[in-house]
Amino acid sequence: MLTGKQKRFLRGKANRIKPIFQVGKSGVNDNMIEQVGEALEKRELIKISILQNCLEDKDEVAEALAKGTGAELVQVIGNQIILYKESEENKEIVLP
């Protein structure tokens, strides 16, 4: 679990990154979870955008992605989800 201080730190870092995935009408599926998991291993911190045509609730989408990838949900803000997962091979982010 992340502490409040760690989440603030990660939110600051996430400010500068662009969303690399979009969740649309089809919602969250196994293929997307696999791709998000691979991206988390490479980058540790990613931002995901939820499109207007997504039929699922944004909090449910965030929960499904976090559970499916084993990542920590940093924040859901507007239509953006921020996920963090410590990388096993490409560790770059040092949490406070």
Describe the structure.
- The chain is of the alpha+beta class and 96 residues long.
- 39% of the residues lie in helices and 21% in strands.
- The protein is globular.
- The two termini are 13 Å apart.
Write the layout of secondary structure elements.
Layout (H helix, E strand, L loop, with lengths): L3 H11 L6 E3 L6 H14 L1 E6 L7 H12 L2 E6 L2 E5 L12
Parallel strand pairs: 1-2
Antiparallel strand pairs: 2-4, 3-4
Note the main sheet. Answer: 4 strands, mixed
Q: Residue-averaged pLDDT, rounded?
A: 93
Number of helices: 3
Output the strand order for the largest sheet: 1-2-4-3
Q: Evaluate the radius of gyration.
A: 13 Å
DSSP strand count: 4
Characterize the overall form. globular
Q: In sequence order, what are the helices and strands, one letter per element?
A: HEHEHEE
Question: How many domain modules?
Answer: 1
Protein name: Ribosome assembly RNA-binding protein YhbY
InterPro entries: RNA-binding_CRM (IPR001890), RNA-binding_domain (IPR051925), RNA-binding_YhbY (IPR017924), YhbY-like_sf (IPR035920)
Keywords: RNA-binding
Pfam families: CRS1_YhbY
What's the short story on this structure?
Residues 1-96 form the CRM domain. With 96 residues, the chain is of the alpha+beta class. The chain contains 3 helices and 4 strands.
